[in-house]
Amino acid sequence: MNASEHDDRQNAARWYWQRTRRLTLALLALWLAFNLGVVWYAEELNTLLIGGVPLGFLLLSTVSLILFTAIATVYALLTNRWERQVRHWGERDDG
C-alpha cells in the first residue's frame, strides 16, 4: 500500500465517522425531543382523546416505539450505504 492509498483510506474513514456522528446526534435529538415533549405536555395532550384513549398515553405507549423503530431503521440503512461507499472508495476503474 502506497502513501496515496493510505491517505485515501484515512479520508474515507474520516468522512464515514463524521457522517455517522452527525446522524447519531440528529436522530438522538429527534428521539429526545419527541419523548421529552410528550412528557412535558402530557397533561394538555391527555385532554384529547383518540378512540377513548388519552393522546399523551397513546403517543408514549405506541408512537414512541414506532419512532424508535423508524430511527433504528434509518440509522441502519444509511450507515450500511456509507460503509459500502467507503469500502469502494479507493477502487479505480480499469476499463
TrEMBL record:
Residues annotated as domain Sodium symporter small subunit: 14-85
Highest taxon of source: Bacteria
Protein name: DUF4212 domain-containing protein
Residue ranges of the TM segments: 23-42, 48-78
NCBIfam families: Na_symport_sm
Taxonomy of the source species: Bacteria, Pseudomonadati, Pseudomonadota, Hydrogenophilia, Hydrogenophilales
Keyword line: Membrane, Transmembrane, Transmembrane helix
InterPro entries attached to this UniProt entry: Na_symporter_ssu
Originating organism: Tepidiphilus baoligensis
